[in-house]
Design goal:
Strand content: under 5%
Radius of gyration: 29 Å
Largest sheet: none
Order of helices and strands: HHHHHHHHHHHHHHHHHHHHHHHHH
Oligomer: single chain
Number of helices: 25
Distance between the termini: 47 Å
Shape: globular
Length: 472
């Protein structure tokens, strides 16, 4: 059995091997010679700052002594958060989650440390160390699962935002798990939570859930907005700090979500009423630049969506009004463009309308859009990627229907790739059905690419689920 020397013994051996005095090593490591002496002789507890200096002076990796530090300076000493916390932060920074987990597992047995661990988790979350933050939140939540605390709810909110990603099946599970904790959050924070849930359900096309989240958000936002303008200025500022947007935005955004729900149900008249509602923000009391920005944004969305509802209801004239609107808009974002093109293609396919002239006009935009990387917040991480995939499908459907097979299969393969990444089985199967419907028109090269892709999907599934058919 190999005996591992202590940190102190290894430092002492290093000094002898290099012929260094404690004074000389102190200069190299940026430490007081008395401190070096105290560490080597065992008369001084080693702090994380000193450990960093020692490893730097010995020209070792920064985390070289971490396992031994846990044994010698944490496990064998009385627990002391002021000494332990800097070490945990360093574990996070160097991605030593094994060391983090070992120390945290000890601290979790002491309920008094949950508060400190929560603060650490929040810092990790803010700085983007999501893996470490998720581990901490999971364990804090487990430690407080019988409490009805705001901290427990925040842990689940953070886990929800961390877990939401490309995999739509996973996203649905994360949303379902988190939903029951929303009511335990601070009443103001609930607005962002409901907005985020609404956006995830929107990306999943779970329209009943979108409707539920939107109505809850609107009701709570109206109450909070009314209270805001009855309270003192200082209290108002504290409430606003908890939100990612001005408070009135949540009222109007709820109307926007409800309009989307109505569109999905082909109730375009009711969708228009919701659109008119978020277009009229004359009731908003705020006049600062941030408020003006959001008011302008809602008006911009409403102007487009009034036409969209007419387009989706089959109004051919409105379709060309919409095209002119898109072409004339100087502040159209890539996110706007993908939504607008998707609306056009959905109408074209629903009513079998020839829109080749429109596609030629926006050919450059379509090609550049399909090369864009994904983006950051819950909306752009969820709704926009799904719309990119759906746009690919609608383009494929259109081109194949009208006999333009090369373009059709190109967009179909793009859509299949995206829906595979999103783990959206429903639309992935739709893509396969569409491919099989027009298989007779596919060229050998595309057929080979398709078969290779399907094989990769199968292998991914085997790796994920561990199931394999070994029969010959």
């Amino acid at each position: 059995m190999k005996i591992t020397p202590t940190i102190r013994a290894e430092v002492q051996t290093y000094l002898i091997r290099k012929g260094l005095s404690m004074t000389k090593f102190g200069h190299i490591a940026g430490m007081n010679p008395g401190t070096v002496s105290g560490i080597v002789t065992g008369n001084r507890t080693i702090s994380v700052h000193q450990l960093d200096r020692i490893t730097l002076g010995m020209d070792l990796p920064a985390d070289h002594f971490y396992e031994r530090y846990i044994e010698e300076c944490i496990m064998e000493e009385p627990l002391n958060w002021k000494r332990i916390s800097p070490f945990l932060y360093r574990c996070v920074q160097f991605n030593r989650l094994d060391c983090l987990q070992r120390v945290v597992s000890v601290l979790l047995d002491k309920p008094s440390y949950l508060h400190y661990l929560f603060e650490l988790a929040e810092d990790c979350y803010e700085e983007g160390y999501n893996e470490a933050a998720a581990y901490l939140y999971e364990n804090i939540a487990e430690g407080e699962k019988y409490q009805h605390s705001d901290r427990l709810a925040i842990c689940h909110y953070r886990l929800f935002t961390i877990q939401v990603g490309d995999d739509q099946n996973r996203n649905l599970k994360a949303a379902t798990r988190f939903e029951s904790f929303v009511e335990r959050l601070d009443e103001v924070v609930q607005l962002d939570a409901l907005k985020d849930l609404g956006n995830v359900y929107r990306s999943l096309r779970e329209w009943d859930k979108v409707d539920e989240m939107a109505r809850k958000m609107r009701g709570k936002a109206e109450i909070q907005y009314s209270m805001k303008h009855q309270q003192k200025k200082r209290e108002n500022n504290e409430s606003e700090k908890k939100l990612s947007r001005p408070m009135f935005v949540y009222i109007s955004y709820a109307d926007l979500l409800c309009a989307g729900v109505c569109e999905s149900r082909e109730d375009y008249e009711q969708a228009l009423q919701y659109t008119y509602a978020y277009a009229d923000l004359s009731w908003v009391k705020e006049t600062d630049e941030d408020a003006k920005y959001w008011i302008s944004l809602f008006k911009h969305w409403a102007q487009a969506n009034v036409i969209v509802n007419k387009v989706l209801s089959g109004d051919i004239k409105a379709l060309y009004d919409y095209v002119e609107y898109i072409g004339a808009s100087s502040d159209t974002t890539d996110q706007d463009m993908v939504t607008q093109l998707l609306n056009i293609m959905m109408m074209a396919n629903r009513y079998q309308i020839d829109v080749n002239d429109i596609l030629q006009r926006f050919e450059t935009d379509i090609n550049s859009l399909l090369q864009l990387p994904q983006s950051n917040d819950v909306y752009t991480q969820q709704v926009i990627p799904e719309q990119f995939a759906r746009l690919g499908y609608e383009l494929a459907y259109y081109y194949l229907y009208w006999g333009m097979y090369s373009d059709g299969f190109k967009h179909l393969m793009y859509s299949m790739e995206k829906y595979h990444i999103l783990n959206n089985e429903t639309y992935f199967i739709k893509c396969m059905v569409l491919f099989e419907r027009y298989r007779v028109y596919v060229v050998p090269e595309t057929k080979a690419t398709y078969l290779k892709f399907i094989e990769r999907v199968w292998i991914d599934d085997v790796k994920k689920n561990g199931a394999i058919d070994r029969r010959n």
